[in-house]
Amino acid sequence: MASEGLAGALASVLAGQGSSVQSCDLAPAGEPRVPVRLRKNLCYMVLAVFLSEQDEVLLIQEAKRECRGSWYLPAGRMEPGETIVETLQPEVKEEAGLHCEPKTLLSVEERGPSWVRFMFFACPTGGILKTSKEADVESLQAAWYPRTSLPTPLRAHDILHLVELATQYRQQAKHPVILPQELPCDLVCQRLVATFTSAQTVWVLVGTVGMPHLPVTACGLDPMEQRGGMKMAVLWLLQECLTLHHLGRDHSDGICLNVLVTVAFRSPGIQDEPPRVWGENFFWWKVMEEDLQSQLLQWLQGSSVVPVNR
């Protein structure tokens, strides 16, 4: 029964879905568990890439004093009580004049757990493109530009990589459609699909406290984790067990990212089995279902994931 439940949970994650966080297997040491709150100890940003059939990119001209006149992708800050998608759609309407629907998450950027930006590939569904006659505090105007001939000055050149990601996804999607699931969570945390592979065999790390489950590790908000980024929480959980050397609608502003990790460490003298797990809180589950094995190997070999960047 436990194996069936694990297989279902793993299949759900590989399909781009999520589940509620009931508890964490590892929380930051020495930190009280304080729920995260937008505008207090947390900031989420959203950004959208639009590509036309003529290979044009939708850009907006900034109205903010510090970058007035420069060009950028439609973007904005999430406010308390909003969901991620609810933030994206009005931002695009205010800055570009268009209604939209997100197609998939393209990338996640983090500057430590307290600042996370979600980048989407989106498509317009209506509205009228904003002109210079409608300039306001949100933007001066919006326009479509050829992907290979963007206007200057750009507010920042980080959008070039995102436009390229969207182009690649449209040409050949490497990952399934992934959109935020609206599930309550009061921490910034990560659910790990920690894998060990040998030949065509795949093991997945499993937590044992309560029902067997994919491990969840919470991110701290102290200065060291801000500098090290969200990967610190992943490394601490792996070190703990292997001894290696939104969302806002329900007043819970946390997120849980499903994160794929591959463990390269091998125990001395043992090459074909995963490293020993210390303690009783974790074990390696050998994935026997052929379709799940195939999906995991494909994801690992083809980097078929949404990247998390700093």
UniProtKB/TrEMBL annotation:
Species in which this protein is naturally found: Pongo abelii
Enzyme class: hydrolase
SUPFAM superfamilies named in the record: Nudix (SSF55811)
Domain of life: Eukaryota
Function: Mediates the hydrolysis of oxidized nucleoside diphosphate derivatives. Hydrolyzes 8-oxo-7,8-dihydroguanine (8-oxo-Gua)-containing deoxyribo- and ribonucleoside diphosphates to the monophosphates. Hydrolyzes 8-oxo-dGDP and 8-oxo-GDP with the same efficiencies. Also hydrolyzes 8-OH-dADP and 2-OH-dADP. Exhibited no or minimal hydrolysis activity against 8-oxo-dGTP, 8-oxo-GTP, dGTP, GTP, dGDP and GDP. Probably removes oxidized guanine nucleotides from both the DNA and RNA precursor pools.
Reaction(s) catalysed (UniProt annotation): 8-oxo-GDP + H2O = 8-oxo-GMP + phosphate + H(+); 8-oxo-dGDP + H2O = 8-oxo-dGMP + phosphate + H(+); 8-oxo-dADP + H2O = 8-oxo-dAMP + phosphate + H(+); 2-oxo-dADP + H2O = 2-oxo-dAMP + phosphate + H(+)
Protein name as annotated: 8-oxo-dGDP phosphatase NUDT18
Record lineage: Eukaryota, Metazoa, Chordata, Craniata, Vertebrata
Record-annotated Nudix hydrolase domain positions: 46-155
Single GO MF descriptor: metal ion binding
Manganese keyword on record: yes
GO biological process: nucleotide metabolic process
EC number(s) stated in the UniProt entry for this protein: 3.6.1.58
Keyword Metal-binding: yes
Recorded family membership: Belongs to the Nudix hydrolase family.
Alphabetical UniProt keywords: Hydrolase, Magnesium, Manganese, Metal-binding, Nucleotide metabolism
Cofactors that this protein relies on: Mg(2+); Mn(2+)
